[in-house]
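From the shared-data thread, chain only:
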Amino acid sequence: MSGTQAWGFTDDRGTELGAARVPRRVVAYVRAGSALCDLGVTPVAVYGSGHDGEVLDPAKEGGLTAAAVTYLGPGRVLDEGLLRELRPDVIVDVTYDGKSPYALDEAVAERLGVPLVALSVGNELSLPAILDRFGALAASLGAAPVDGTADGTADGGSPADLRAAEDELRAVAARTGLGVLALSGAGPDQVHLARPLAWPELARLAELGVRLVDPGPGPGANWLTGDWGRAAELRPDLVLFDSRAHATAPDGALSGVRFTPWNPETPPSPAAYARFFRAVAGALAD
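Structure, as tokens:
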């Protein structure tokens, strides 16, 4: 990167990006955009993934609706003319493989002549490391730095608030010892059972003392796919169910089990994960 550039950032693909001035007009994948919004950088627009439709999924919106951020629909069928009209200075996506952006074809950004940042949300990084990377990007885009003691966002999304939520969850998990299974419903006859160590937030739950239920051997790196009977055989005390619009709610599929929603695309911000950890602690304590 040239020393004359006012903005530079190296993303999690190792791509060095730069611009003559700090980007102000940010377009982002919805998960990244919601995190940036929490961190003090409001995008001008966001786009979805292949799971998303023409309306923003309520499970993913975070503070985007309140901030009046425009939703452009799924990234793979994005109207490039509309995107060009928005005059983005930078596009922010996520990556699961450390090589390619997840929700937008990189050629779109190349045709617009706009830098594309891809930050990792896969299990090659721990959840704290993922949060640090999004914080670093937000700071590079002009967000006020968070010192870890004062609230960093309007809803108390500081690292200190996240640590307090983790402490609360750690205490509840030690006291209850309940088994927790994370899953995503795929219809009345099929369910995807999460492999805990494949998901940074689930791995973090385990580090905090939550007893996560592993679905056992079988195909699939992130999920083991089976029927609802397989989920029942695992005898979980609490189920974290995928709350995204495309997933099937486990209504009636499991009996005698506690439930709490889980968004596998939770925005990587201290505020969002503090809310999630407190929700898990509350479900374990009920």
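The first strand starts at residue 7 and ends at 10.
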